[in-house]
UniProtKB/TrEMBL annotation:
Top-level taxon in the UniProt lineage: Bacteria
Protein name from the UniProt record: Porin
GO MF, one example: porin activity
KW Signal (keyword) present: yes
GO cellular component: a single term: pore complex
Positions of the Porin domain: 8-344
Membrane topology: Multi-pass membrane protein
Annotated keywords: Cell outer membrane, Ion transport, Membrane, Porin, Signal, Transmembrane, Transmembrane beta strand, Transport
C-alpha cells in the first residue's frame, strides 16, 4: 500500500510537469449586424437582412495549442470552425473545422504543418489589404482571396531578419465545392495515374519593418474532375476538368506607416488556362486603402478596388468606407458603407460572397451595414 501511494504521487507529479509544458487556448469571434443592399436583384429591388457570411470579420471559434519538446522544438495544432451567427449554421460548406485544421512542428527554422490550411495568397495580403475579409472588401470582386485555403496541404513558413518565406503544396485542394469559394466545383484530387489533378501550390516572399512592408506571392490550382473557374462577375463558371488546366494568381503589394496613417495597396493578376470551352481568361485586380486611428478607441478606414476581366469584357470599381468604435479590447461596434459600379456586361455584388444579391448587368449597388463584433 505504501509503495502504491508513492507511485501514485510520482505519477501525478509527472502528469503535472507534462501538463505545464503544454498549452491549449480556446478562442473565437462573433460578428453580425443589419445590412441594406440596393438593387439586390435584376428587378432593382432592395433587401434588408442579417448577413450570413461576414461583417467586419467572419465569425469563428477554435482551439490552438502547443507542446514544448525541448531544444527550441514545439508541436503545434489549430482547429478552427466558421459559422454564421444569424442561423447558427456551419460555414465552409458545412465542414466541422472548415477554416483551419492543422498539426505540425515549429522551431528556429520555421514551421512545418499538415492539414487544411491557408495558402500563401492569404498570408501575402494580410498587411496590405486594409479592410481584409470585410463584407464590403476585396472578397466582393474575388471571393477566393479571403478564403484562400487548401485541403490535404503541407505548409512551410519561416521568418528570418524581417523576411518571411512560405510555400504550400496540396494533394487535392477542395473536396466539398463550397469550402474555398462558390462556383469552383469539387476538386478532391489524389487520383491514381494523374499526380497533377486538383493539385495546388503557392509560394511567398515577404519583408516587414517598422514603417513599411512588401510582399509577392504565386498561387496555382490545377484542374480536375468537376472543377470550375468562377470570376464572380455574374458570368457562368466554366469547367477546368483537365489536370493540364491552370487557375493561377500572382500578386505584388506593400504598405507604409506614416504619421499614424497606414496605407496599403497591391495588384493581383489571375490567369486561367483551359483547353475546354472556357478558353483562356485573364483578370487584373487593383486595390488601395488607408487606416487612421482618430483616438485609441475610434478608427476610420477605407479602400478602393478596380477589376478588369479582359476576355469576358467585365469591369467593376468599388469604394468602401468603415468606422469602428472599440467599446473594450474585445467588443466593437461599426458602420460600413460601400458603392460598386458595374460595367455593361458585369453584375458583381457589393456584398462579399453575393449572398443572393445579384444586380442586372451594368447596374451598381449600394451596401450599408451597422454591426457588432465580440471576441472571446
Amino acid at each position: 500500500m505504501k509503495y502504491g501511494r508513492i507511485a501514485a504521487v510520482v505519477a501525478e507529479l509527472f502528469s503535472t510537469a507534462a501538463f505545464a509544458q503544454s498549452s491549449v487556448t480556446l478562442y473565437g469571434v462573433m460578428d453580425t449586424g443589419v445590412e441594406y443592399v440596393a438593387h439586390a436583384n435584376a428587378a432593382g429591388d432592395h433587401v434588408i437582412r442579417m448577413p450570413g457570411i461576414t461583417g467586419e470579420v467572419p465569425s469563428r471559434w477554435g482551439m490552438r495549442g502547443s507542446e514544448d519538446l525541448g531544444g527550441g522544438l514545439k508541436a503545434t495544432f489549430i482547429l478552427e470552425s466558421g459559422f454564421n451567427v444569424r442561423g447558427g449554421d456551419s460555414g465552409q460548406g458545412g465542414r466541422l473545422f472548415g477554416r483551419q485544421a492543422l498539426v505540425g512542428l515549429e522551431g528556429p527554422w520555421g514551421s512545418l504543418t499538415f492539414g487544411r490550411q491557408y495558402t500563401m495568397t492569404y498570408w501575402a495580403m494580410s498587411d496590405s489589404d486594409i479592410l481584409g475579409p470585410d463584407i464590403y472588401g476585396i472578397g466582393s470582386l474575388d471571393s477566393f482571396l479571403p478564403n484562400a485555403r487548401s485541403d490535404n496541404s503541407v505548409v512551410y513558413k519561416g521568418k528570418f531578419y524581417g523576411f518571411t518565406v512560405g510555400a504550400t503544396y496540396s494533394f487535392g485542394r477542395d473536396s466539398t465545392g463550397t469550402g474555398n469559394s462558390p462556383g469552383q466545383g469539387t476538386c478532391a484530387g489524389q487520383v491514381p495515374g494523374d499526380a497533377s489533378q486538383c493539385r495546388e501550390w503557392s509560394a511567398m516572399l515577404k519583408y516587414d519593418s517598422t514603417y513599411f512592408g512588401v510582399a509577392t506571392a504565386y498561387d496555382e490550382q490545377r484542374g480536375g474532375t468537376n472543377a470550375a473557374a468562377n470570376f464572380f462577375n455574374g458570368i457562368a463558371p466554366f469547367p477546368i476538368t483537365s489536370s493540364a488546366d491552370k487557375d493561377a494568381r500572382m500578386q505584388a503589394n506593400g504598405y507604409i506607416n506614416v504619421a499614424g496613417v497606414k496605407v496599403g495597396g497591391g495588384w493581383i493578376g489571375r490567369r486561367v488556362e483551359s483547353n475546354g470551352p472556357g478558353g483562356s481568361v485573364r483578370s487584373n485586380l487593383f486595390y488601395l486603402g488607408a487606416q487612421y486611428y482618430v483616438t485609441p478607441a475610434f478608427a476610420i478606414d477605407g479602400e478602393a478596388y478596380h477589376v478588369v476581366v479582359q476576355q469576358q469584357d467585365a469591369r467593376a470599381t468599388m469604394a468602401s468606407l468603415r468606422a469602428t468604435y472599440f467599446l473594450s479590447k474585445r467588443t466593437a461596434v461599426y458602420g460600413n458603407v460601400a458603392y460598386l459600379w458595374n460595367s455593361d456586361r458585369a453584375h458583381y455584388s457589393v456584398s462579399a460572397g453575393g449572398g443572393g444579391t445579384t444586380p442586372a448587368p451594368g447596374v451598381g449597388q449600394l451596401g450599408a451595414i451597422v454591426g457588432i463584433r465580440h471576441s472571446f
